[in-house]
Amino acid sequence: MMMGDDVENGNLGLYQDRPRTFPNMRSKPYTPLIFRVLMGINVRVLVILLLLGLGFVFYVGASTSPIIVFVFSVCIISFLLSIYLTKWVLSKDEGPPEMSQISDAIRDGAEGFFRTQYGTISKMALLLALVILSIYLFRSTTPQQESSGLGRATSAYITVAAFLLGALCSGVAGYVGMWVSVRANVRVSSAARRSAREALQVAVRAGGFSALVVVGMAVIGIAILYSTFYVWLGVDSPGSMKVTDLPLLLVGYGFGASFVALFAQLGGGIYTKAADVGADLVGKVEQGIPEDDPRNPAVIADLVGDNVGDCAARGADLFESIAAEIISAMILGGTMAQRCKIEDPSGFILFPLVVHSFDLVVSSVGILSIRGTRDSSVKTPIEDPMTILQKGYSVTIVLAVLTFAGSTRWLLYTDQAPSAWLNFALCGLVGIITAYVFVWITKYYTDYKHEPVRTLALSSSTGHGTNIIAGVSLGLESTALPVLVISISIISAFWLGHTSGLVDEAGSPTGGLFGTAVATMGMLSTAAYILTMDMFGPIADNAGGIVEMSQQPESVREITDVLDAVGNTTKATTKGFAIGSAALASFLLFSAYMDEVASFAHESFKQVDIAIPEVFIGGLLGSMLIFLFSAWACAAVGRTAQEVVKEVRRQFIERPGIMDYKEKPDYGRCVAIVASASLREMIKPGALAIVSPIVVGFLFRVLGHYTGHPLLGAKVVAALLMFATVSGILMALFLNTAGGAWDNAKKFIETGALGGKGSDSHKAAVTGDT
Questions:
Q1: For the chain: N or C, fewer Cβ within 10 A?
Q2: What would the DSSP string read from start to end of 389-435?
C-alpha cells in the first residue's frame, strides 16, 4: 500500500511496522552521452573498434619508444583489473528492498546534479578553449618553435586539443568516482549485516576501482598525446622539433584537467557542506534526532553530497594533481637532459610515466591484500579498519620503494654521471617518506584515538564557544609539522639532485630542480592506494546513512559508524597528502613558469626580487586572493545552508507528523535547493582564481612598458603565484585538519563518551562539525 493511500485512510503505522518507500529524484537514471553511444553500438562492432584503437595506440607507442609500450601495457592491465573489481563489487547483494530504494534515491540525485554541473563546466571549457586559441594565434613564437618549424596556428590547435582532452579526461575521472560510489554504498550496508571485515573489503575494492581508473587515465592520456605528437611531428628527424621540447606541447592537457577540477571541487564542495550543515543543525541540534534519520528532509541531499563532493570532485582533483606533476617533471627532465647534452634523453622525459605505471601495480597489490574473513558466519570482534588499511598501505610503500629504485636505475643511468641514478633514487625515497609522514601527521590530528581530537571533544563539555576555540587552535597548530616536513624534503631532494654529478657545458650542477621533481614523483608513487582510502570514506558514510534510514539493527549501525569514523580520517589524510604533493609540485611549476617567460621574452628570468615595491604588492595580492577565495567559498556554503535550514524547519512546522513517522518528508525539495544554489555559487570564486593573475599581469605589464621595465608584469605575477601558493598551502592544511578533527570529535562523543548522543556536549560538537 502506498503512502498517499495510507494518509487518506488514516491507517499509518510506525515506519518499522511497514515497508518503507523513498522517492526517486529523477524519473530515470542518467547515463552520459558518450556511454549511451557506446552502449548502442553492436558488441562485435565495438570489439573490432576497440581492437583497432588498441592497435593504433601500440603502433604509435612502438614508433616512439619501448618505454611507452610498457606504459600502455601496464595501464591496460590495470583497467582490466578495475573491471574485475567492479564485477566483484556489483556481484554483492543490495540487501532488503528499503536499502536499495534509498540507494536509488541517492544515485538519481547524484547523477542528476553531475549532469547539470558538468554541462555548465563543459560550456565554460569550450568558451575558454576559444580564448586560448585566440591568444596562441596572436602571441609571439618561442625559439624552440621557430627552430622546429612549428607555426603559430599548429601550436594553437595542439594546445587547444590538449586542453579539451585534459578537461574531458578529468570529467570522466570524476564521473567514474561517483558512478562506483553510488552503487557500492548499498552493498557495503548489506555486507555490514554480516561482518565488518566484509563491509570494509567491499568499500576498499569499490574505491580501488575508481583509483585505478583515475590514475590509469592520467598516465595513458599523457602517453597517447606524447606518442601521437612524436609520430605526427616527426620529432628528432632533421629540421623538426627536438624530443626535449616535446613535453611543452602537453601543458594544455594539465590546464584542462586543472580547470575542470577547480569547478568540480567548488560545486561539489558547496553542495556537500551546505547539505551537511543544514541537515545537522536542524536535525541533531534542534530536533534531537540521530544522524541520517529518515525523518530529516535534508538527509538524502546530505548523502548525495558525499558522492558529488568527496567522490566525483576528489577523482577530478587527484587526476589533475597527477597530470600536472607528470607534465612538469617531463618538461624539467627534457630541459636538464638538453643542458647536460645527454645522448638519449628519453629516459629522463618518460621517467614520470613509468613511476606512475608502477604506482598502478603496487597499489593494486595493496588493494588486493585487504581480504574478507573466510567465515562470515563467525562473529568476531570488530577490528580497527584503520589498522587494516595501514597494513595495505605498508605493503604498497615497501613495493613502491623497490620499484622506484629499479625505475631510476633503468631510466636515469647515464655514462656522464654513473652514480646520478642513486642520488635520484634517494630523492624518490625522500618523497615516499614525506608521503608516509604526512599520512601519519594527519591521522594524529584527526583520529579520535589520539590526544588532539579527545582534547577537542572534552572542550565541548563546556559549551559551543570553547569547542570552536579549541578546533581553530588545533587547526592552526596542525600546520607546523607538515610545513617543516615539506621544507626538509624540498631542501634534501634539491641537494641530492644538485650533487648527482650532472653538469651543463659550463660545469655548473643542473640536477637540483629535477631532484625535487623526482621527490614529488616519489610522494605520488602510491597515489592510487591513497585515492582508494579517500574513496572509502564517502562510501562508508553513505553506507551508514542507508543503514540508519532503513532502520537496521543497532549492531549493524555500530559497524558502519566505525567505518565512517575511519573514513573521516582517511578523507582528511588524502587531502593532507594532496596538499603536500601540491606544495612540492608548485615549486616545479613555478620554475617552469619562469623558464617559459624567459623563452618568450628572449632574456634571462632566474629570480624574483620582492624588494621591488610592485613585486611585493603582487605578493600581497596573491596572499589576499587565498583569503578572499576562501571567504567567498565559505559564504556560498553559509547562504546555501541557510536555505536548507529554512526549508527543513518549514517542513517540520507544516508537517508535524514527520516526527511521529506519520508523514513523509519532501527529500527532493532539499536536493533541488542545494543543487541549484551550488551551481550558482561556484562561478564567482572560480572566476576569481582564473581572472586575477591575468588582470594583475596585464596592469603591471602596461605599467612596466611606461617605466622601462618590460618584465615587470611577469615578475609581479610570479610573486602573486608564489605568495598565493604559500598562503594556500597553510590555509588548506588549517581547514582540512580542523574539519576532520571536529567531525571525529563528534563521532567520539557519539560512541558514548562525555554524555553520548543528545547531550549538551554532543550538541556543541555538532556545532563545531558544521
A1: N
A2: HHHHHHHHHHHHHHHHHHHHHHHS-BTTBTTHHHHHHHHHHHHHHHH
**Is the sign of the CA dihedral 594, 346, 365, 306 positive or negative?**
positive
Total count of residues recorded for the chain: 770
In this prediction, the residues of the chain whose per-residue pLDDT falls under 70 are 1-40, 42, 141-149, 239, 372-382
**How distant, in Å, are the alpha carbons of 265, 521, 583 from that of 170?**
12, 20, 21
How many CB atoms are closer than 10 A to CB 705? Answer: 12
Tens of pLDDT, residue by residue over 223-274, are 999 898 888 887 777 767 778 778 888 888 988 998 888 888 888 888 888 8
Distance CA 187, CA 179 (A): 14
Cell reading at 69: 609500450
- Give the 3-state DSSP-derived string for 619-678, with helices as H, strands as E and coil as C: HHHHHHHHHHHHHHHHHHHHHHHHHHHHHHHHHHHHCHHHCCCCCCCCHHHHHHHHHHHH
Q: Which three cell numbers stand for residue 367?
A: 588493494
Which residues lie closer than 8 Å to 594 by C-beta, 6 or more apart? 605, 606, 608, 718
Residues whose CB falls within 8 Å of the CB of residue 214, separated by 6 or more in sequence, listed in order: 173, 176, 177, 315, 318, 319, 322, 528, 531
Burial class (CB in 10 A: 0-12, 13-18, 19+), 558: middle
Q: How far apart, in whole angstroms, are the C-alpha atoms of residue 331 and residue 592? A: 8
Q: What angle do CA 11, 17, 22 make, to 5 degrees?
A: 85
Measured CA to CA, the distance from residue 739 to residue 768 in angstroms comes to 8
- CA–CA gap between residue 555 and residue 192 (Å, rounded): 9
Could you give the angle at the alpha carbon of 400 between the alpha carbons of 394 and 404, nearest 5°? 155
Q: Angle at the Cα of 636 (from 634 to 641), degrees rounded to 5?
A: 95
- Could you tell me the pTM of the whole model? 0.85
Q: Check residue 503 and report its DSSP letter.
A: B
* Cα–Cα distance, 431 to 437 (Å, whole number): 10
What lies within 8 Å, CB to CB, of 119 at 6+ separation is: none
Classify the phi-psi angles of 400: left when phi > 0, otherwise alpha if psi is within -120 to 50, otherwise beta: alpha
What span, in angstroms and rounded, lies between the C-alpha atoms of 353 and 82?
19
Q: Which DSSP category does 166 fall into?
A: H
Helix, coil or strand: residue 699:
helix
Domain ranges for the chain: 30-63, 64-371+383-769
Chain mean pLDDT for the chain: 83
Amino acid at site 374: R
pLDDT at 142: 65
Note whether 367 and 532 are within 8 A (CB).
yes
Q: How far is CA 533 from CA 349, 385, 597, 708, in A?
A: 30, 11, 39, 54
Partner residues linked to 417 by β-bridges: 414
